[in-house]
Structure formats: C-alpha cells, structure tokens
Amino acid sequence: MTRMIEYEGIPCNVYTTSETTVAPGGPDLPKETVIYAAWRWLGHCNVLFHPLTALCLAFRRGLVRGHTQQIEASLAARAAHLPSDDRLHLLLVLSCEGVWIKQVVFSPRTLLAGLPGRVRRVVFH
Question: If phi over 0 gives left and psi between -120 and 50 gives alpha, with beta otherwise, what is residue 73?
Fold first, then answer.
C-alpha cells in the first residue's frame, strides 16, 4: 500500500511492503487489518507530515548521513481504530524513497525496550 503525503509542496510516500510485520501480541486481528490501520493513521497524522517530508527531502539531497533513519511512533491503539487498550508502536524507516512501516507492535508500555539507541521516538498521548 502506498499513500502520498505532502507538506508545503514536498511529496513523500508512506508505504508498506510484504516485509512489513506485526509482532506477536495484541488483539486477535488479521495481520493485514493491523497494518492497514497503522498505515491509514500515519497517512492522516498531519502533525507528522512536516518532519517526515523534510527528512525524506534531506535524504534525497544527500544532506543526512547514512541511507536510512528509524523512528518509533507510539500511540494509543484506539487512535488507529483498533480494539485494544494497549499502545501501538510503529517502527518506521525513512529514506529517499519515503517512509516505510517496517513493523507494528502492540505493547502496554509507552516506549519499547531493546531498540537501538539511534532510533528517534515520537509519543502521542
């Protein structure tokens, strides 16, 4: 699934692939439903449009060291219209191609443990 977001004329793709995974746990829902809900939420989250499009543009212009950057976005699962009291964590990979939803994780914790130190975190309360 691919959706184009735009901020001040700067386009950026938000997409999933067959490699997008859902970690075990959370409500008993099909993988496709959870991924679609996460993708849909991210495509409608206007507050993230500016930083995501700016970072994608910086990657395209070679202004960022490395080829990718990982971001963890944490939100209430109900914000993505999923039937759970847990939090939904989206592991996003930013590159010149856009924003890829790498993994979706349900967890009662606000922040996930065990992620590399270079992962940027965005928490929605």
Answer: beta
